[in-house]
Amino acid sequence: MQGGIATLYPPTRGFLVKDATLVDGSLYKAGKRLDLYSRARIPKRDRYIPRMRVEYELDCGAIYSSYDGNEFFGLWLTDDCPNYLLARDWGIPITSNQPASAHTLEYEKWLGMKPLRANCAFLHKVVLFDDDWGNNSSKQARFRMMKEKLLANVNVEQHPGAFILRRDSGTPRIMHNEIEMAEYLRERRGFRILDVTRDDVSTIVANCAGARIIAGVEGSHLIHGLLAMQSRGAVLALQPPNRFCGVIKRTTDLENLRFGFVVGKADGNGFRVDPVEVERTLDLFPCQSQGLWTDTFRSQSVFWNKKDFGDHWRRAPGTRETPPVVLHP
């Protein structure tokens, strides 16, 4: 799915704050507060009158973790991890002290991330970034650096695709025929099947590397595959009828991947998706019907779009490259 429009994104900005205090996942400065995660995670007695204590005192830190990244694993991968590459150049990379999942720790090891997990700290200088929703060339370059590091650890061979099982992980989105769909695509299309609740990062990356299609119930677990899949491939999200979400398209646009979806039908406490609809949607992807794309693509701070599946890429008049990072005191 491509909309035929070009979007110019602003440069990534950094903000320098002096003499700030980090307490229980919130940064305080001059009566203002920036939350890094939901206040609901903090005991009620500490939400309004935090207990002051200092575990670290730093001359200069850089916070790369975000509210959304602490809430959703997929946004941690697409937003916080690229921001780490900025943070390490501006100070000690700081993230929240929220419990890290096994997948989080594995990715940190593979990507060479060595953050300071701080709950309470006094920061003489701290840099913050507003890069979460931008798709400029700086973020694109950092995202691809991550991808290259991951793929350097596995053998990359082109294959039809991978179906990543969500099961009961994360926010409930119960697809009653999820396993049947995965088996159907393995038999009909040669897809590999992965289980995000059981497989480790090395298994997931190794089996998604080179995939032309990544498919599964919409959710953070699809980002595992998006990071490792074949360039110019496609992501197919199976959507529940009462919770449509297209946030993954933001990252498929960043990576010049196609995005498609099939909305299921309600069934009790979950939903079902028709495998025939899934196959018909898969057939719409150019990487399925015409082989992998061969068009020249150059990293820019705008989306590049293929109008009506034509043969030529175009760029919107008046768009321009933006500087990678601008620091605002």
Task: Give an overview in words.
Helices cover 30% and strands 25% of the residues. It has 329 residues and is of the alpha/beta class. The chain has two domains: 12-149, no CATH class; 156-292, 3-Layer(aba) Sandwich (Rossmann fold), CATH 3.40.50. The strands form three sheets. Strands 1, 2, 3, 4, 5, 6, 7, 8 and 16 form a nine-stranded mixed beta sheet that branches. A five-stranded parallel beta sheet has the order 10-9-11-12-13, with helices on both faces. Strand 1 (12-23) and strand 2 (26-29) form a beta hairpin. Helix 3 crosses helix 5 and helix 7 packs across helix 8. The model is unreliable at 290-329 (pLDDT under 50).
The beta-strand count equals: 16
Order of helices and strands: EEEHEEHHEHEEHEHEHEHEHEEEHHE
**Largest sheet features:** 9 strands, mixed
Quickly give the structural class. alpha/beta
Strand coverage percent: 15-25%
Mean pLDDT reading: 84
Task: Count helical runs.
Answer: 11
Main attributes of the structure:
single chain; 329 residues; alpha/beta; Rossmann fold; 2 domains; nine-stranded mixed beta sheet; five-stranded parallel beta sheet; 11 helices; 30% helix; globular
